[in-house]
Amino acid sequence: MLTTVTAGPYTVRGISVGGVYTSIAVPELGLLFDAGASPRSSCAIDTILLSHGHADHIGALPALLGIRGLVGKAKPPRVIMPAEIVADLGAALAALSRLQRFPLEIEAIGMSPGDELALRGDLTIRAVRTFHPVPSLGYVVVRHVAKLRHELHGAPGHEIAARRRAGEEINDIEDRLELAYATDTLVSALDHAPALLRARVLVVECTFLDERKTVEGARAGCHIHLDELVERADSFHNEHIVLMHFSQLYRPDEIAGILDARLPPALRKKVIPFVPAGTSWPG
Ligand SMILES: [Zn+2]
Ligand SMILES: [Zn+2]
């Protein structure tokens, strides 16, 4: 049922079919992006980032919360989402809690484009603007890395230790854009948030791939067409690009071939299609 790909240091695991369900876990970061499905293995993750409120991205959140109860996760997960949907999602979960006779609790955190939220340790989430008919967000995971200040390079260890003891700041903090997630959006999200193009790993929707849907048709639904990524082929500074949220117009086993034929070779090398093995979509 689940697809797993490796993108640099990260495992990207879950399920994604455009308009049907999308939920993608990155276990090394302890993050789950969207909750359109509730695979058992995702339920232990304590931080969930919702892109927007469409059912294929949040529809399985109640099931996921219920399964957490089964596996003994007593603490509500932290659920990050566009600020505009916090109240409606809270009301929906309250109604579902009454139906269940079981509290479906979350720690809701609303974000707006440009907001940052510190996670555990050295990680921060940065929200970026995406463009969809409902309130939506993309997310960039930033790691703060301490690096010895340039002027101290080559200094003997005892001198660096002495400076540290004297209270001197010996490190600069460098922000590394580790992973970005953007789905259900016009391609212009990439132009407005260059961090998406510089993240080490970019997980991005590419709902439509060829003439079976026109670029205009894709834009009308606020989705990305492969032609629009080809136009920007030289802009991607990512090491790996995981394409997902493919339409059911395409069979999973034909997608790699379409990418081979249509993407410039330098971009194709970076692209990992998030598709299951075989000829049919999961479910
Ligand atoms: Zn979607
Ligand atoms: Zn949507």
Write a structural description:
- It is a single chain.
- With 283 residues, the protein is α/β, with parallel strands linked by helices.
- It has a single domain, classed as Metallo-beta-lactamase, Chain A.
- It has ten helices and 14 strands.
- It starts with a strand and ends in a 10-residue tail after the last strand.
- One zinc ion binds next to loops.
CATH-derived architecture = 4-Layer Sandwich
List the secondary-structure elements in sequence, H or E.
Answer: EEEEEHHEHEEEEHEHHEHHEHHE
Net shape? globular
By CATH, the topology is Metallo-beta-lactamase, Chain A
Judged by helices, strands and strand pairing, the structural class is alpha/beta
Ranges with pLDDT <50 over ≥5 residues?
A: none
Instruction: Give the fraction of residues assigned to helices.
Output: 25-40%
Write down the CATH class. Alpha Beta
CATH homology-level superfamily: Ribonuclease Z/Hydroxyacylglutathione hydrolase-like
In percent terms, what proportion of residues is strand?
25-35%
Put simply, the count of helices is 10
- Structurally, the number of domains stands at 1
What molecules are bound to this protein?
zinc ion
Distance between the termini: 7 Å
Largest sheet: 7 strands, mixed
If you compute it from the alpha carbons, what radius of gyration comes out, rounded to the nearest whole angstrom?
A: 20 Å
Strand order of the largest sheet: 1-2-3-4-5-6-7
